[in-house]
């Protein structure tokens, strides 16, 4: 799509946030590593380019840079933080290591009329996070704002349409950051607001029809937001040519397979083929205690059951999201790929070479998928379901997984979740669940000494799962859940609440 905004990534933790903010303003944006070749950039005909922040110092030998000819290509550029320092350094200004790092809130002191800061108030709060600063701007640039401590906070060379900010407009703590980005997109780049989920649904539906009409299409569905939305979109575009496959790995929550099948078939009218592989997964996991081995076994078994079981189809539709696409092409180069996504296992790569993989959500962020879901009429209770890990309850039964332990955990988990729903807390937390610990503890039940199992409850708040805080559930809610678990799940005589944040702990226990 030409007319988009390209974001060149120097490794900032906020790069994806920049892309999301630009899209929230109605303009399509994509992220490329900073090394992306100039001729490729030009071929994409972007309306503007944003240089992201990054952890490096422009003063260090071998620091990441761009091709200098980019600055003379006539495309408007906005440098953020490292991006600002790079503009200064490569165009003849001076960057210095600051005596101390500026981190946190600061305020803008406007210095001169500015296209980028048009409408932004003097004293506006901004978020800073940098070690180096620009001591002297490159020729042609004027200072448009300083920060509280006198550092250059914003600058522009209007003739060349080069703009720079030391603060992070993409972070919500920069109160008027969105206005700054909007000024860049509309006043500087002349971008058009063509990116909306309504347009997206219309275009993807048309493309699916053009490519797959009359063909046999399959997709995997778990009942989660992404795969359900994908199945609804595919069915809307292709009708009965689509079969959704739901694999029961035996590691689902209480009655989940029945509920998911009911939702998909009855409420959404999808054609779903059900594969019960629970025995096979449990057999493969028998006696295995190491968390990583459990995950590997589950991943491998899923591939065997799902991909190798596929037959008589032309296309496989997958719910790969944009962050997965970016992560498989990291800033540091291919050698730094952190994980091979399960959407890229060997079976999928083979199909991809044959042109048989379709990924309609490859450009979407999670919140955009939720908007698509709403547009397609996916019911709110499906939309608001908590995330659930692929390896399911296997990473919540600590140690070896058995059918008996799964049964105990399922009951305890269902009671906790029902208490959260009853008290209105379910929708306030990112995720909540029970964990079955591999220890026993002494208790008294009635007049008898009991030696029973221990369940840990975990509930966290988070915006993306990368960091999380424990949810401060009211004692009454915890009491109600704990009492019911002890009363109704015979094997359990002790319930504890996990109070740890992430980091240092992870959300899951294994
Ligand atoms: P952690 O435990 O790493 O979890 O803090 C972060 C988020 O990811 C989910 N999670 C997984 N999801 N496959 C998944 O699809 C996995 O192997 C997996 N492990 C963790 C977890 O539930 C939380 O939402």
Q: Please outline the major beta sheet.
A: 8 strands, mixed
Mean pLDDT: 94
Q: Gap between N and C termini, in Å?
A: 42 Å
Any low-confidence stretches, pLDDT <50, length ≥5?
334-339
Give the C-alpha Rg: 26 Å
The percentage of residues in β strands lies in 15-25%
Descriptive notes:
It is a single chain. This protein has 15 helices and 19 strands. It has helices at residues 15-24, 38-43, 82-90, 177-188, 197-212, 225-238, 256-267, 278-285, 291-305, 322-327, 346-353, 366-375, 380-383, 403-422, 475-488; strands at residues 5-9, 29-33, 48-51, 77-80, 94-107, 109-110, 125-136, 142-146, 152-157, 162-165, 217-220, 242-248, 272-276, 315-317, 357-358, 431-445, 448-461, 469-470, 492-497. The strands form 4 sheets. An 8-stranded mixed β-sheet has the order 2-1-3-4-10-9-8-6. A hairpin with a 2-residue loop joins strand 16 (431-445) and strand 17. The longest helix is centred in the last third of the chain and has 20 residues, at 403-422. The model is unreliable at 334-339 (pLDDT under 50). The structure holds xanthosine-5'-monophosphate. Xanthosine-5'-monophosphate binds next to loops.
């Amino acid at each position: 799509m030409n007319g988009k905004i390209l974001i060149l990534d120097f490794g900032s933790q906020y790069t994806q946030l920049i892309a999301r903010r630009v899209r929230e303003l109605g303009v399509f944006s994509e992220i490329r590593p900073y090394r992306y070749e100039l001729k490729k950039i030009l071929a994409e005909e972007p309306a503007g380019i944003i240089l992201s922040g990054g952890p490096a110092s422009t003063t260090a030998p071998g620091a990441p840079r761009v091709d200098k000819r980019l600055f003379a290509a006539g495309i408007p550029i906005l440098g953020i933080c490292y991006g600002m320092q790079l503009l200064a350094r490569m165009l003849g200004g001076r960057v210095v290591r600051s005596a101390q790092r500026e981190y946190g809130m600061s305020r803008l002191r406007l210095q001169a009329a500015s296209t980028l800061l048009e409408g932004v108030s003097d004293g506006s709060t901004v978020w800073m996070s940098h070690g180096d600063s620009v001591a002297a701007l490159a020729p042609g640039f004027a200072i448009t704002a300083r920060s509280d401590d006198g550092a250059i906070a914003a600058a522009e060379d209007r003739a060349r349409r080069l703009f720079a900010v030391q603060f992070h407009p993409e972070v919500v703590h920069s109160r008027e950051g969105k206005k700054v980005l909007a000024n860049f997109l509309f006043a500087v780049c002349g971008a058009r607001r063509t990116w909306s989920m309504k347009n997206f649904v219309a275009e993807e539906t048309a493309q699916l029809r053009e490519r797959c009409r009359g063909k046999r299409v399959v997709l995997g569905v778990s009942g989660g937001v992404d795969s359900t939305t994908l199945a609804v979109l595919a069915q809307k575009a292709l009708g009965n040519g689509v079969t959704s496959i739901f694999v029961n790995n035996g590691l689902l929550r209480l009655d989940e397979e029945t509920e998911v099948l009911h939702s998909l078939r009855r409420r959404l009218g999808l054609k779903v083929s059900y594969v019960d592989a629970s025995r096979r997964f449990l057999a493969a996991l028998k006696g295995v205690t190491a968390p990583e081995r459990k995950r590997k076994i589950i991943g491998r078994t899923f591939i065997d059951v799902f991909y190798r079981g596929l037959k008589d189809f032309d296309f496989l539709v997958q719910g790969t999201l944009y962050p997965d696409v970016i992560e498989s092409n990291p800033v540091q180069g291919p050698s730094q790929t952190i994980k091979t996504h399960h959407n890229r296992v060997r079976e999928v790569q083979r199909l991809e070479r044959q042109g048989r993989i379709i990924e309609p959500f490859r450009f979407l962020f999670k919140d955009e998928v939720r908007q698509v879901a709403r547009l397609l009429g996916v019911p709110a209770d499906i939309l608001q379901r908590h995330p659930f890990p692929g390896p399911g309850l296997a990473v919540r039964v600590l140690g070896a997984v058995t059918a008996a332990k799964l049964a105990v955990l399922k009951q305890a988990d269902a009671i906790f979740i029902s208490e959260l729903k009853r008290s209105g807390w379910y929708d306030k937390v990112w995720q909540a669940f029970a964990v079955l610990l591999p220890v026993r503890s002494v208790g008294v039940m009635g007049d008898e000494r009991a030696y029973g199992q221990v369940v840990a409850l975990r509930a966290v708040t988070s915006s993306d799962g990368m960091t999380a805080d424990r949810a401060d559930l009211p004692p009454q809610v915890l009491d109600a859940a704990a009492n019911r678990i002890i009363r109704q799940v015979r094997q359990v005589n002790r319930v504890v609440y996990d109070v740890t944040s992430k980091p240092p702990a992870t959300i899951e226990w294994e």
